[in-house]
Amino acid sequence: MSKVVIIGAGGVGTVVAHKVAQNSKVFTEVLLASRTKSKCDAIAADVQSRYGVTMQTAQVDADNVPELVALLRSFQPKLVINVALPYQDLTIMDACLEVGVNYLDTANYEPKDEAHFEYSWQWAYQDKFKKAGLTAILGCGFDPGVTSVFTAYAAKHHFDEMHYLDIVDCNAGDHGKAFATNFNPEINIREVSQRGKYWENGKWVETEPHEIHKPLNYPEIGPKESYVIYHEELESLVKNFPTLKRARFWMTFGQEYLTHLRVIQNIGMARIDEVEYNGQKIVPIQFLKAVLPNPGDLGENYTGWTSIGCRIKGIKNGEEKTYYIYNNCSHEEAYKETGTQGVSYTTGVPATVGAMMFLTGEWGGAGVFNVEEFNPDPFLHELAQQGLPWHELHNIDLEL
Ligand code: NDP
Questions:
Q1: What is the mean pLDDT, run by run of 10 residues, along the chain of 400 residues?
Q2: Atom of ligand 1 lying closest to residue 106 CA
Q3: What is the CA radius of gyration of the chain?
Q4: CB of 120 within 8 A of CB of 235?
Q5: Which residues line ligand 1 (CB under 6 A)?
Q6: Which of 85, 104, 117, 143 to mutate to test the pocket of ligand 1 (most atoms within 8 A of CB)?
Q7: All domains of the chain, ordered by start, with CATH?
Q8: Torsion over CA: 297, 168, 240, 195 (sign)
Q9: Strands 391-394, 319-330: parallel, antiparallel or unpaired by DSSP?
């Protein structure tokens, strides 16, 4: 009964396609559209051979609102799952408004010509979605996404007041390449090479890139050097949970990765402006993407785990308490199930679960929402059923 359009046929789009096909009672008709139709066709063929489910495909330039409008008008979906790039968020939201379709994404809008991301651009759509009686669900991947729902779950069940939030993101996997990024290289390099930023006592504190770091122990993995970086869910979480005195985001990086990143930056290959080359204009980071391994192809030899969660300190019944909620995901298991590595898997599964929440009426309302504003319970219940079980630890040493 529910028609959806998936936009984007990369690593995350592949996982969403598999997951909607596995849940064909909820997702009764699916159209997978992307810039390169042959990629959609290959995914649809794989999905059909594994689950016997047919999926329509189409070519679309998601930077082009009239093209999107024509596609949505002809298919008439209830929801668009946007797993293209953050650059396309606003055009897809515009098209959804024009046709009267609900919207979900996994990453907040970034302009192409400025390595800068914040929710203001998408929050500015609040009135338009409200007036249209449509729902826009922002940031429904793992981080943002599950980490935001973990925080909402902690607030609902385990704390009267949360004071300190540390989101910890560890990729302890090994793909066997000297250097590769786990999702779109352009977006990934822009994200990890920016200045650090965290929330403390009502204001943002900026740091040099990777200035604050320490080893943290991850369950079943052990100690990994972890670095404070800015991550987009902090912006909405400190707004929605105003008792937080401090909120930080930690990500693990290997020395080899950081060395490559430094060289890439120092030689100008991370530049996002156009340069003249042989009479042609090219953007260095886009050229770099073309020569780096495709994140979607890393899965085959990827071993190890990701471990992402929230470490929280606060007050319950007048007593101080600590709480850690996390998921560990195996790259090998993700590959066996969907042909992609764990980072695509941990993003695509929550996007699908968020879509299920909307289509089954658990989540909804008119306006633009970050996922921590919804009821966390049905989402986390379904997340565990769909391949991402989660675990809780109480009153442990958070190391932070
Ligand atoms: P990929 O680069 O693998 O895939 C992106 C897909 O979008 C490609 O198929 C690409 O087409 C398509 N696309 C790009 N531009 C357009 C356009 N103008 N019109 C139509 N299609 C377009 O990226 P990922 O799958 O790794 O990531 C997808 C999204 O997930 C990104 O927004 C990323 O930031 C987000 N993400 C979120 C995470 C989270 O936890 N919240 C974690 C990881 C990723 P083509 O194949 O032709 O290049």
A1: 94 97 98 98 97 97 98 98 97 98 97 86 98 98 98 98 98 94 87 93 96 97 97 97 98 94 94 95 95 89 97 98 98 96 96 98 98 98 98 98
A2: 41
A3: 20
A4: no
A5: 8-13, 34-36, 39, 60-63, 83-86, 88, 106-107, 141-145, 183-184, 187, 295-296, 343-344, 347
A6: 85
A7: 3-138 (3.40.50.720), 146-340+379-394 (3.30.360.10)
A8: negative
A9: antiparallel
